[in-house]
TrEMBL record:
SUPFAM superfamilies: Cytochrome b5-like heme/steroid binding domain. Residues 1-27 are annotated as: Disordered. Keywords: Fatty acid biosynthesis, Fatty acid metabolism, Lipid biosynthesis, Lipid metabolism, Membrane, Oxidoreductase, Transmembrane, Transmembrane helix. It comes from Oncorhynchus mykiss (Rainbow trout). This is Cytochrome b5 heme-binding domain-containing protein.
């Protein structure tokens, strides 16, 4: 169809960024969706943004957000994700110009995979309204006060030991205060991570490094590359790292049946709702994440993040060695991580684990995010406890929106969902947590039935 139809008959990958099939640069060719969708392999990746076709095969390796998150949209329309992830799309577009190889043929629809064009347009209109009303602008005072309450918790924990000594009761209280500060610092670094996209020299980026590195001992780059994949394709197997359970759990309705039919039994999955309490909340942060973080920093030679991380441990041991000695300080940080891990797992999983999980279904942005997320009821405690991630729907639809504006956009999102018949789920905190266990039990039962009878 057009010049593009004849030029892309070969399945050979393009030879370089921004080079069309005839070697033209700047992109005068036209393509059909069928042609674009053929370029979805690791060594041959095209995508579409605002009807423009880009060859990202080589650029993907240099993508600041990581190769995986951009590669998840190879062969697809990435317009909605592109707008959602980038605080300043115009700033990013200059990197796209050399990659342009053409555009969609005039006869091709703007949406691929049969997406609902009216829904996509209505959501874009909502986003335009959100931008025009300034709901994507952060209030520095809000985040300054939030950071202040974290630092105050840390100072109080240390001050109690200096004044009253190291009794068991005070040590336990100190641990609880440190776990609280760590959890709240986790929510804060999450904010700064989203607010510093493509602004490597901005204040948000520097604060992200400080909070996740110096206050938590983790890696900003590790978090960015992992977390943005989750936002790009939530609850999509092989694309969302948050549901990569390493064969320890089977999740959703389809994966358990697939495992059962193949007679895969790495664990007694029909008991996973029970052993979840032993290896899920207690170990995800102190064991699994810590291993991943340090392995990533060393393998990627990310010495800047490593230095920030080491500054946390240096500060921690300097503060607590006089009271507990070396091994006592190790025990203290391990116990704090243990407590923080429970907090983190329940808050993050209650909005995702009970929701739909599937392989790639090529849905529009709104439908994809709403099928994978739900909200927890708003209250002062729930807002603080979850770092405002009780507004998980709004956060996923507008990942660069500062948390203090979620409650303002929530009624608009709900109205749009009602108009198009998209389920908008809100649960109590208790139901959100119990649904985690129920979903694990349901998935385990599906696995056992398939394992025994299919």
């Amino acid at each position: 169809m057009g010049g593009g139809g004849q030029q892309t008959e070969s399945s050979e990958p393009a030879k370089g960024d921004g080079v069309g099939p005839d070697g033209e640069r700047g992109g005068s060719a036209v393509y059909t969706w069928e042609e674009v969708q053929r370029h979805c392999h690791r060594s041959d990746q095209w995508l579409v943004i605002d009807r423009k076709v880009y060859n990202i095969t080589q650029w993907a390796k240099r993508h600041p957000g990581g190769i995986r998150v951009i590669s998840h949209f190879a062969g697809e329309d990435a317009t909605e994700a592109f707008v959602a992830f980038h605080l300043d799309p115009n700033f990013v577009r200059k990197f796209l110009k050399p990659l342009l190889i053409g555009e969609l043929a005039p006869t091709e629809p703007s949406q691929d995979q049969g997406k609902n064009a009216v829904l996509v347009q209505d959501f874009q209109a909502l986003r335009d309204r959100v931008e025009s009303e300034g709901l994507l602008r952060a209030r520095p005072l809000f985040f300054s006060l939030y950071l202040g309450h974290i630092l105050l918790l840390e100072a109080l924990a240390l001050g109690l030991l200096w004044v009253w000594g190291t009794s068991w009761s005070l040590t336990l209280l100190c641990s609880l205060m440190l776990a609280t500060s760590q959890a709240q610092a986790g929510w804060l670094q999450h904010d700064y991570g989203h607010l510093s996209v493509c602004k490597k020299s901005g204040w948000n980026h520097k604060l992200h490094k400080f909070v996740i590195g110096h206050l938590k001992g983790a890696s900003a780059n590790w978090w960015n590359h992992r977390h943005f994949q989750h936002h790009a394709k939530p609850n999509v197997f092989s694309k969302d790292p948050d549901i990569n359970s390493l064969h320890v759990f089977v999740l959703g309705d389809k994966q358990p049946v697939e495992y059962g039919i193949k007679k895969l039994k790495y664990m007694p999955y029909h008991h996973q709702h029970q052993y979840f309490f032993l290896i899920g909340p207690p170990l995800i942060v102190p064991v699994f994440f810590n291993i991943q973080i340090f392995r990533t920093m060393f393998s990627q030679r990310d010495w800047v993040d490593l230095a920030w991380s080491m500054s946390f441990y240096l500060r921690f041991f300097c503060c607590y060695y006089p009271f507990f000695g070396f091994f006592g300080s190790v025990a203290l940080i391990s116990f704090v991580r243990f407590l923080e891990s429970h907090w983190f797992v329940w808050v993050t999983q209650m909005s995702h684990l009970p929701m739909e999980m599937d392989h790639e279904r090529h849905q529009d942005w709104l439908t994809m995010q709403l099928s994978a997320t739900c909200n927890i009821e708003q209250s002062t405690f729930n807002d603080w406890f979850s770092g405002h991630l009780n507004f998980q729907i709004e956060h996923h639809l507008f990942p660069t929106m500062p948390r203090h504006n979620y409650h303002l956009v929530a009624p608009l999102v709900r109205a749009l969902c009602e108009k198009h018949g998209v389920p908008y789920q809100v649960k109590t905190l208790q139901k959100g947590m119990t649904d985690v266990v129920r979903s694990l039990k349901k998935s385990g039962d599906l696995w056992l039935d398939a394992y025994l009878h299919k």
